[in-house]
Design brief:
- About 40% of the residues lie in helices and about 15% in strands.
- It is α/β, with parallel strands linked by helices and about 425 residues long.
- Strand 2 (about 105), helix 5 (about 110-125) and strand 3 (about 130) form a beta-alpha-beta unit.
Length: about 425
Amino acid sequence: MSDRVESIGTTCVQGGYRPGDGEPRQLPIYQSTTWKFDTSEHMGRLFDLEEAGYFYTRLQNPTNDAVAAKIAELEGGASAMLTSSGQAANFFAVFNIAGAGDHVVASSAIYGGTYNLLAHTMRRMGLECTFVAPDCTDEELEAAFRPNTKAVFGETIANPALAVLDLERFAAAAHAHGVPLIVDNTFPTPVNCRPIEWGADIVTHSTTKYLDGHGASVGGAIVDSGRFDWTAHADKFPGLTTPDESYHGVVYTERFGLEGAFITKATAQLMRDLGSIQSPQNAFYLNLGLESLHLRMAQHNKNGLAMAEHLAAHPKVAWVRYPGLPGDSQHELARKYLPGGASGVVSFGVAGGRAAAETFMKRLGLAQIATHVADARTCVLHPANTTHRQMNDAELVAAGITPDLVRLSCGIEATEDLIADVDQALEAV
């Protein structure tokens, strides 16, 4: 087989699973909770992490592993795992290296559910988080770090504020303090941006969105770049660099190396104890979506830019945020990190505020009001009323959410039909 590096489109279609002679062409669904063994000694070696293999789907499953391997290939990472949701992926990614008594620095412009996870739920677990604006000064970013900081977290494109994270700057700050940068890459997908190439160490996804692409299955993924040297900062990450007594003293960085330590620990400890698994059936659906990801993202990007340009010129639209739009405050960062496109998500304000936004949404025909984003069908949401409803006014402002903000996720329908639908809805405002 050729050593030539494949294009991302080929990896979307064929990555992760290559059938051998006489084997199924389609990725098989291993719809089984358990595996049979001839001896208990063999199973014991698996339980002690001395040998690779499968014994219980809560920990590993061949279908899931093949799809995770494809996502790792797409992101340019060393290893990956699937989780039950994007929220589970973000929780595992942080909790794998930070817990009670620790601290995390995070961008304030992130999805409301992730903000709640870091600001409230994990705080009850003893972890503190300092939020900084993605466009904060270098001095403000530096001041956010503490001696017990264990990670920096952000979103490549914030949901729904659409702020673009300066990946190189945040990665440099994290690495200067000996901690990894964790980046949620849900909106761009690896088709539009591969954060690892810009210095990110861990990449997460809500696979429920563009990666699945059809609103068919909930899931998440964590990709480890394999580049962060946990042993160089061993005192900060004892869970990876000191013996794990629950596995007879295994040291993950010694047994599995820098490329395998993080994902192995997250699987062997967190998935073992918390069980937030993605079902093999959902992993199968996810793989079907991944096969067309590169094709779908091209149309999402086209529709997003066309819609942003149209809305920016509409008299009943107060403002538009789309990183791919020339003149947008995020445009220069988008040109650097998202040269292929800025996804299909557009945020804007309807002239007349919250009431006008609600009227506009009621009149839409093709665009459906749904608690979803980033799939084949165009959908629309009012974040202040839904996904960010638990935030107070100050938190909303910090996250870039205003009362009139409408999040429009352009699907892969015909561009002219989407614009016509928006126009007729705006006539009622």
